[in-house]
Amino acid sequence: MEFSNHAVNANRNASMKQAAGRQYPYSYNQSSSYMKFEALIKEQSNFYSVLMDHVVAGVFVIYDNTFIYVNSYFAQLLGYGVDEIVGQQVDRFIEEEDWLLPQSFDNILDSEITKRQIFRWNGKHKNSSIVYFEGKSTSIKHDGVIYFLSTVQDVTIKYEKERELIRNAKMYQRMLMTIPEPIYITVDYAIIFANRHGLDLLGKRHISGLSEQSFLEYFDIKDREDVIHDFQNALLLEEATPFRQQQMKINDRIIEVEHSSVKIENYIGRTAILTVLRDLTERRQDEERLVRSEKLSVIGQLAAGVAHEIRNPLTALKGFTQLLRNKYAEHSYYFDIMGTEIDRINLIVNEFMTLAKPHYNSFQFNDIVHIVQSVLSILETQAALYGVELDFQAQENLPNLYCNENQLKQVFINVIKNAIEAMQDGGRVEITIRYEPAEQILHVKIQDHGMGMPEDVQKRIGEPFLTTKEKGTGLGLMVSSRIIEEHKGTMLITSRSGEGTLIDIQLPLQMEYMNNN
Question: Residue 316 sits in a domain of what CATH number?
């Protein structure tokens, strides 16, 4: 291996010139031996040169950031000939500034210690493509000059596969983060990863907020054995465990979930468990809405027949009661009671008729603020009798709502009247209207600060004849729910005993125009 045209040749030539200027007496045999030795040296040099050119690795020597030797294999990797690289600066063949060898090789190695350094760099091919190299470098010292000998391999395919794996890993990570189900990865029950919905469910903003918290802590003590059993099965099996329904306690809130777990081999060097959770809260609410809707439908069909049959004889009873009151004036007290009860029956029949077939034939665009204000003007007197202040606030520039004005008025009268009557000791009822552009929904919220409703009553809200009032029919909220449902909206009720009740009426802005009369 020759370091041509550079420091090594210069030093060797100088030594040869000095040797040529000297006179040495020698015999023929000595001359013959010298020639044989010189031939042997040349032969060995040729042998090593051929050997280096046939090594299945790129070999090069650097001095002063310049290639002074490259084998043919290295030159071929870059698409050049050997003569095109020797004597050229190293930087010319580097695509990016990621040369991991030190920029200056001075004082790295001394004459007694030899070190090896691993490096990577992006080679610039003659056709402008990139060749990814990986190799080792060491120093060699000759005539007091330090050179750097390096061997490299073309790892382009390996590097591209690594990049592809990294891209896939990032893609899968993004998928995990955005999957609309809470996902957790645990090691020995400690949470080491949670996706976006998983963090939201636990009320956390970042995985660091969990601090490798135990997943078991979110389950009731009596349910933890089942979770441990599922995790152990996941470690033994090669498939996901069946979904199990349980309750979790998160921030003093009990939610019903179902979860399934599966083993992950070699997750950051460890065996982990991936758990998928499903929050059943919304599903339960949907099921309750469906049951409630079916109840309303059945009651509506029943009411259509019953109310009609009751109304005719009721009219006759009321008329004859009036006649009898005039004839038997001395017994007017009894007739007054009969008239009051007949009016009560008539009220129930009217509500049944509304429940059976609400009149939605007059849908048009209306100002929701105007509707609520007209209701408040009707209820102001009743509120004053109870010592209740009606506090109304509405967002500015609210869009018009496609609705039936009279039916919505009936809903607001029912709900606000209930709020007033819930505050026997007076206080304030807050009515607010705001618009959510992203959801295209108008929110009408009615908040009272009364005694609230017991939990068992809250679960039965919307059932017929369920009431906490002494003279209530129990149909007001049911009729209101039916009206809001026909407007494609929802009515959410939140109540805490001793703190009051909040009713959030959500009305979609862009509902389908109704064709039925």
Answer: 1.10.287
SS3 of 318, please?
helix
Q: Identify the pLDDT of residue 372.
A: 92
Q: Are strands 58-63 and 145-154 parallel, antiparallel or unpaired?
A: antiparallel
Q: Are residues 297 and 375 in the same domain?
A: no
Which residues have a Cβ under 8 Å from the Cβ of 411 and sit 6 or more positions away?
A: 480, 483, 484, 505
Give the H or E element holding residue 118: strand 116-124
Q: Which residues pair with 63 in a beta bridge?
A: 66
Asked if 501 and 417 count as a contact pair (C-beta separation under 8 A), the reply is no
Return the CATH number at 270: 3.30.450.20
Instruction: State the SS3 of 385-419.
Output: HCCEEEEEEECCCCCCEEECHHHHHHHHHHHHHHH
Q: Is 377 helix (H, G, I), strand (E, B) or coil?
A: helix
pLDDT reported for residue 313 = 80
Residue 392 has pLDDT above 90, yes or no: yes
Domain that holds residue 235: 179-279
Tell me, yes or no, whether 393 lies in a domain: yes
Q: What value does the mean pLDDT of the chain take? A: 76
Site of tokens 């869009």: 399
Phi and psi at 452, nearest 5°, equal 75, -175
Q: Are residues 92 and 220 in the same domain?
A: no
Q: How far, CA to CA in Å, does 272 sit from each of 258, 337, 454, 511?
A: 20, 75, 44, 47
10 Å CB burial of residue 428 (0-12, 13-18, 19+) is middle
Q: What is the pLDDT of residues 351-370, one digit of tens each?
A: 666 655 555 557 889 999 99
Q: Do 339 and 392 fall into the same domain?
A: no
Whole-model pTM above 0.70?
Answer: no
Same domain membership, residue 128 and residue 36:
yes
Same domain, 16 and 141: yes
Query: Is the domain of 29 the same as that of 57?
Result: yes
| Same domain, residue pair 204 and 261 | yes
Least confident range of 110-124, 251-265, 278-292: 110-124
What is the tally of structural domains in the chain?
4
